[in-house]
Amino acid sequence: MRSGRNIAAACESDTAFMFLAAMYKPDFRTINDFRKDNIDFIQKAFIHVVQLCKGLGMCKAGTLIIDSTKLKANASADRSKTKQQYEQWVERIDTDIKNILDEAAQIDEEEDKQYGEKRGDELPEVLRSKQKLKEKIKEVLEQMNGEKERINLTDKEAKFIKGNGKIDVNYSCQTAISEDGIIVSAYTSNCPSDRTATITSVNNAEETTQEIYTEILADSGYASFDNFEELNDRDKVIYIPDQQMNIEAEKEDNPYHRNHFIYNREKNCFVCPENKELPFYSNSTHKRTKQQSTIYICKDCPSCEKQPLCTKGKYRQIHVEKRAFLRQQIRERLNSVEGKLKYLKRMRIESVFGNIKHNLNYIHLYLKGIKKTTAEWQLICIGHNLKKIHKFKLT
């Protein structure tokens, strides 16, 4: 139950609600304003409940499981528009305002009947709402940086994010749980990619619990060389598959797949399946991602009869990212028997999302903006953790 009116009514008729409210009968507006007016308190309450779990012997340290779920923002997708679309909307509003004023000018003789004892210069409601809408659109236009950027008029921070198989105006609810299912990190983001949330989720979890997590589990959406490097520098055991891991495994049947090229450390070159060398060619830095790679090129390809099977270009090239050894270590760990059993624990967070979204029917957010939706998501997570405490005490 999330409706302020329903909760207010329950506080007057439902014995459970009456007990929890200590017979107090709050107005529905008071209930609705609670979330909006207590953003900082909700964050402190979330941390306090996690610490309470820790004090009871729950919230086990060691393994941290990270994932996200998408919840519908309190905004319509139709109100996410580009700069050009907003400008066209303003033109239509100007036309509507002109038509309203023209119509008003034609019925001046009925002015006394329309306004009675009023001054007669008040704006009609329809005109006032049009002007307010126009002012709101102009505020959005001032914030837009590019022609292709889309901003939602209702919730300026809500973005189009894919969730549940479709793209809609959503928030990504980034979540981390301990091995026993306690939510130790919770916040919302409007970034479609999960990669930026990996380190933030680990930091939030460790700050909230005052514990160090040595094993990090997440799906491939959280994988990047930058994340691998930082987690490795912090002595974390990483169980995060990269995006190419399963794809490359499927393509390994090709005898000329890059995994069949053997690296010769002494000569600093790769040797292809036809026993031809790919010596070091150059170092490269990606313009956008700044990733540094080493390039190896085989100059013998034109004379090789297997060239059409090996490469589409004139020469076969192999690009090796400077931190590729970290990715290889993680792949070997995940492919081990122990690693496969460990990675199965990642599915525990799916049961948390399933309970929240399908059993409790939390499928959309009511508040707007990242700060407020974070508080709303944390409030939901507080409820989850309190139920875990209740079950723990019963056992």
Structure, explained:
By secondary structure, the protein is an alpha+beta fold. The chain has three domains: 1-37, no CATH class; 39-74 and 169-242 and 336-394, Ribonuclease H-like superfamily/Ribonuclease H (Nucleotidyltransferase, domain 5, 2-Layer Sandwich); 245-322, no CATH class. Helices cover 45% and strands 18% of the residues. The chain contains 15 helices and 13 strands. The chain has helices at residues 4-13, 15-20, 28-37, 39-55, 83-106, 111-115, 125-143, 198-209, 225-233, 245-251, 307-310, 324-335, 337-343, 348-359, 370-394, and strands at residues 63-72, 80-81, 151-152, 159-163, 166-178, 183-189, 215-217, 237-239, 262-264, 269-271, 277-285, 292-297, 317-321. The strands form three sheets. Strands 1, 4, 5, 6, 7 and 8 form a six-stranded mixed beta sheet that branches. Strands 9-10-11-12-13 form a five-stranded antiparallel beta sheet, with no helix packed on it. A two-stranded antiparallel ribbon has the order 2-3. The longest helix has 25 residues, at 370-394. The protein is flat.
